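re: ur question from yesterday

yeah so i grabbed the chain u mentioned. its 214 aa long if i counted rite. heres the sequnce exactly as i have it in my notes:
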Amino acid sequence: MTKFTTAFSAAAIATLLLAGCSGGSSSTSTSTTSGAQPEVTDIAMMETSMGTMEIELYGKDAPKAVENFVTLANQGFYKNILFHRVVPGFVIQAGDPKTKDASLVSDWGTGGNSIYPGILFPDELNPQTPSYKLGYREGCLAMANSGPNTNTSQFFIVLDDNVKERLPHNYTIFGFVRSGMDVAHKIEGVKLGGATGQMPMQPVKIINIEAGKE
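ran it thru and got these structure tokens back, copy pasting raw so excuse formatting
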């Protein structure tokens, strides 16, 4: 495993087993799951080359992850970053700034950054929070990392409710796709290849993410 640097050139995030999350709700949430719902504190509009997703964020359940995501988004960090990992029926993953440079393709999935000193920040896996209790389901947004407490800027979106049966609950849940899940499924359907067999052959880009209070 390589050492983390200021730009987080770390061990293979591309090979993660990703954990998931469940949809939350606010007064306008599309979630229909019964029981306690996560409090929606922020909304992010993620514009991609295949369409736009509206994402609700859970700043009470995962304050560090949400603050990091919102701040980086509004600084323009995610502009032109690619979805470098697509696993049909499982997840789509993005957030590695190395994907802006095609010459670094062999390292895609190993990069990241954050707003916190030392770059890496801890997991937020409190079993008492509503998002943790709801578990993994289609549309949820969670942090990708390379092990406990190694979060940076990479994230994933879950593509199927059955993911909850396939993953350990090891990754911070911090949001849910309120609308535009059809865009995630369009990304899921692209032709894949590359060394991992999980890389879109036609680049799928994040054009911009804008985030603010609910």
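noticed a couple things. The beta strands are 42-48, 51-57, 83-87, 91-94, 140-143, 155-158, 173-179, 192-193, 199-200, 206-213. also The mean pLDDT is 87.
anyway ttyl
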